[in-house]
Each structure stands twice: as structure tokens, then as C-alpha cells.
Amino acid sequence: MVKKIGIIGCGVMGSAIVRSLDGFEISGFDVNREKVESLGIAIAESASELVSGSDMVLLAVKPQTYRVMDLDFGDKLVISIMAGVPLADLPDRSVRVMPNLGALVGESVNAWAPSGAATEDDRRFVREFLESFGVQIEVHSDDEIDKMTALTGCGPAYLYEFMNSLLESGKEFGLDEALVKKALHGLVSGALKAADGEDFDVMISKVASKGGTTQAALNVLGEGWGNSLKLAVKAAYARSKEL
User: Fold this and answer.
1) pLDDT the model gives residue 188
2) Contacts of 200 (CB under 8 A, 6+ apart)
3) What share of the chain has pLDDT > 90, as a percent?
4) How far is residue 172's CA from residue 93's CA, in Å, rounded to a whole number?
């Protein structure tokens, strides 16, 4: 049973995950000691000390940092949230996870894939662990993790880019920026709740009546809007492979 969790790397994502956890003894190590101190958890003096005192290790460092680390994880369960580091480059008993920015508010989309050495108990723990700060989506390979990285890991930035364009349009209309921001937050929240699992094409048809204002806008966007986003996702996927 996992009782003691150690985290190596206390950046934005690692810190967000730690703040969501409850019921564990948590310790951390980061070259910037102040990051660990800000979390109010036990501080390890070295990465090796942290590993030796943990039941499970969360790797939240950058890939290039991990590749120069010389650590013996033994038979401990390792959960990696590093982009671009395949299961073959992780310890035998490991799980690769791609969370997203929703972790900051306990609503992360967590795609994950286990190594062949991960036990059924490991998988059960990982599901519960990931659900403590969002939803868990089990996939079956490094390639599927890379694809989910491009879709959901990078996804918040696509959404913010979309909202920023709407914000700029509102400002060009002469509307107050704070008013538009409030409206856009409500727009996204309400639209997703209204969809509730329905096909997006169906939802578009509910908004866009023939000859109406929405259809006029969609006519301008045409196929270019969707094709550009697909190309962007493919670029993110290719970059994930290169890391």
C-alpha cells in the first residue's frame, strides 16, 4: 500500500498535484528548495534520499533533467508526468501520465499508460490517485500518450487562444474588457454543460439556423478554421515525439 509519496520537481504541475493530495505522507525535492518549502511538505536533501524514503515517486522534472539523473528506484512504483519520455526510458515498474492545466483547480484530464511490470494493484492505485485531481483516461501505448499530449495536454492553450480572439473582437467593438471576459467564461462553461456528451455537430446545428448570424460567422470560418487546428495538433504530436 502506498503511504509515502515523494515528488522530484516542484514546478507548476507537480505543485498543483501535490496540493490536491490528501491522506499521504508527502516529501519533495527540487534544486530550488523554496518551491518545496512553499508546499508545506517534508523536504528531502537529495533526490536519492527522497527515493529511498518513498513508496511511490512522482517524476515531475523536465525530460533533459531526468536524462542526467542517476537514481536507483529499485522496485518502487514511479509515476512520470514528463512529456516525451517513453516507458522504455523509465524504471520497470512505472506509469506514464499526461495531465493538463486543469490540475490547478483539481480538474485535470489525465491520460496514462502503464508499463508491463505495473501490477493490477498499481493500476488500481493510479486510477484513484489521478481521480483525486481530475479524470483518468487509460490508454495503451506511448504513442497514444503522445497523441493525448497534443489533444488534451496542449488543449487548454488552444482554448485560451480561441477565447483571446473573441476577447479582442469584443474590445474592437468598444466593449469593456472585464465585461467581455466575464461573458466568455460563462460562454465556455454553459456551452460544455449544454453539450453533456452530445455530438458537437449536433450542438452546432442547434445554434446555427439557416441564414442567421451564427451561420454567417461559420461561413467565414469555413473549413480553414478546423484544418488549421488539426495541423496545430499534429505539430504538437510531432514535437512530443522529438522531445
Assistant:
1) 95
2) none
3) 90
4) 54
Contacts of 206 (CB under 8 A, 6+ apart): none
Closest CA to 138 of 156, 154, 155, 120: 120
DSSP string, 113-147: EE-TT--HHHHHHHHHHHHTTEEEEE-SSHHHHHH
Instruction: Say if residues 63 and 45 touch (Cβ distance below 8 Å).
Output: no
Give the three cell numbers for residue 132. Answer: 483525486
- As a whole number of angstroms, the distance between CA 169 and CA 139 comes to 39
Taking only the tens place, the pLDDT of each residue in 70-89 is 899 999 999 999 988 999 99
Taking the CA atoms of residue 168, residue 170, residue 172 and residue 173 in that order, the dihedral angle to the nearest 10 degrees is: 170
Using pLDDT thresholds of 50, 70 and 90, give the confidence band for residue 122.
Answer: very high
> Is pTM, for the whole model, over 0.70?
yes
Contact between 34 and 53 (Cβ < 8 Å): no
**Structure-block grid coordinates of residue 1:** 500500500
Write b or e for each residue in 69-85: b if 16 or more Cβ atoms lie within 10 A of its Cβ, otherwise e: eebebeebbbbbbbbbb
Taking the C-alpha atoms of residue 51 and residue 44, their distance in angstroms, rounded to an integer, is 9
d(Cα 183, Cα 191) in Å, to the nearest integer? 12
